[in-house]
């Protein structure tokens, strides 16, 4: 380990980095669901008022799928980064 970085510093930055990554992953999932459900609600309310509740449900479904896909992809990337950091000398 380089002399300018004490041993405890790497552990502290790794934990805070992991917590930030976890928070970002969860926030991105929630925002994806909310945004697509909002788009479905807006289309249902102003563009196609007779389509209630199908556009809202469709937007919610697309948001769950897109948010879940992004969640899994980012969680896998975070796991790969954590495993790569564990194997560094």
Describe the overall structure.
- The protein is mainly alpha-helical and 89 residues long.
- The protein has a domain at 24-84.
- It has 2 helices and no strands.
- Helix 1 packs antiparallel against helix 2.
- The radius of gyration is 20 Å and the shape is rod-shaped.
Keywords:
83% helix, mainly alpha, 2 helices, 89 residues
Q: TL;DR?
A:
This protein has helices spanning 7-47, 54-86.
Number of DSSP E strands: 0
Instruction: Give the helix/strand class.
Output: mainly alpha
Give the terminus-to-terminus CA distance. 8 Å
Q: Unreliable segments (pLDDT under 50, ≥5 consecutive)?
A: 8-12
Alpha plus pi helix count: 2
Largest sheet features: none
Overall shape: it is: rod-shaped
Q: Averaged pLDDT, please?
A: 81
The H/E string reads: HH
Q: Beta-strand percentage?
A: under 5%
Measured as a percent range, the helix fraction is over 70%
Radius of gyration: 20 Å
Q: What topology does this entry show?
A:
Blueprint: H1 7-47, H2 54-86
């Amino acid at each position: 380990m380089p002399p300018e970085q004490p041993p405890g510093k790497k552990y502290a930055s790794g934990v805070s980095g992991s917590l930030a990554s976890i928070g970002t992953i969860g926030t991105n999932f929630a925002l994806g669901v909310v945004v697509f459900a909002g788009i479905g609600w807006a289309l249902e309310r102003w563009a196609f008022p007779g389509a209630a509740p199908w556009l809202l449900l469709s937007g919610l479904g697309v948001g769950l799928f897109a948010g879940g896909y992004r969640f899994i992809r980012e969680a896998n990337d975070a796991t790969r980064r954590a495993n790569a950091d564990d194997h560094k000398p």
